[in-house]
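Minutes, structural biology subgroup

Action item carried over from last meeting: produce the structure token record for CubicO group peptidase (Beta-lactamase class C family) (Zhihengliuella flava). EB confirmed the sequence was re-checked against the source entry. Recorded below for completeness.
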Amino acid sequence: MIDPRFAAVADLLDRFVEEDPAYAGQLCVYLDGAPVLDLAVGQDHAPQAGGFGADDEPPALRREALTGVFSCSKGAGAVVMGLLVQDGVLDLDARVAEYWPEYAAAGKEATTVRQALSHQAGALGVPGGFSLAEYNESERAAAQLAAAPPAWRPGITHAYHGLTIGVLMEELVRRTTGESLQQVYEDRVRSPYGIDFYLGLPEAEEFRYRNVLKPAAAPLPFIDPFGYTGLAFNSTGVFEREDGTAGELLDLPNHRAVRAGGHSSAGGVANARGLARLYAVTSTGVVDDAGSRTEPLFSAETTRLMTEDQVFGADRASGELTAFGIGFMKPAPQNSFGSVWAYGHNGANGSFGWADPAYGLAFGYVPLRGEDNGNLSRNGILGAAVRQARLAATVPRA
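Output recorded by EB:
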């Protein structure tokens, strides 16, 4: 569906297909709780196992199709953390060790929840990395992380905890609720609001899953396995493919075990509709079948606590200028996805979900083939076009 006010954004998607016949992507945008764009374009011309089946090759990337969304999963995890803050179960200024006593080791005794959930904890990983099984059963990874020294004195700098922030979130949820983060997300967020974004894809939904494909042109960038970024992305560990060969980060959601486990750093499975709806549910509420809009899942105070900037500056690992709230990315110069009130998270394959509650927007984009992130990427170009269309739309705000 295309709201005429956002037709120029739909034209951009068509242009992507004209420029690259192998392109396939999904885009969904909500405005004030109602969808104004919900599109899927392009085809996948590469034969692959799984997905919709050999008799449907080459399949169109339907709006209902699901694929891996990598670190967009952190946004879903952050929603759960926000609910625990809203409930009074989790205090951002408490020490992590108050909930998780084993964490008070090797220089991490004073680390706060706020630091841990805004990439300031220095808990990037452990020597030798983690196995895929340890990420899928993250209490095992959490025990190792609790015993390990931080990469810096917590709170003095920040660097993207690419995979371990999910371990931190999941262990805090276990320690405060007795349940898994995935179960809380399912019971309180995904299922009640019909969100097509899973942290733990049920077997019954497997027929909708499409394998993430590698970028068509450039190889993945080299990461020094011994450096800060290497530690954050488990480069000294081995993610095995299902055939036993060494895998890469973009392989992760193509493992059924990863999709089923739904690790909140990188194991989520969604479509663009699911990403946009998650952010609409938290920020504006969504319009139901009767035409009424639900209350936002986050209160105004929770939104402030979770989405105000905690850190901004050069990432200790990459050197890039980045900004984070509690679990959520915030706009930064190379990734300027909205106003100062915007929050969201992108993924390693170029997927992105965000909300800008000041302007009533919620955005979801998912490509089938791996892409870049940033202002000049497809998700950046589309996001800018959405904001321009919103600026031009003369819609009274409720």
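Discussion: Residues 72-87 form the longest helix (16 residues).
Next step: EB to file the record with the rest of the batch.
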